[in-house]
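This part of the workshop introduces the protein records we will be handling. To make this concrete, we reproduce a full record directly below.
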Amino acid sequence: MIKKAEKSAGLKIETTAPQRPRRKRVTFRLDADKGSDAYVAGSFNNWDAVSHPLKRRPGRSNIHAATVLLSPGRHEYKFIVNGQWLCDPACEHRVSSGLGTMNSVVEVV
């Protein structure tokens, strides 16, 4: 925490400003065909289907990836590939979306 001292009428007043939790880089990876339009959407971006595109890694790889800064906590997400919403096949932790489908989950500590 950051402490700030102030003097007011002969009194020393200390206030503590809360620190923002440190965000961490999380890389989402997906094996998708070359030329695929792939994105990641989730609770961290208000389920915006186009704000976080996955880019194909150089070379002959079909791995698409995007790195996102996430605050500590639990985040639900899905991939969108060519307009189709998909759970992360590499992620075993899933929860109900409340809409009859499942969401993948990542925990940031």
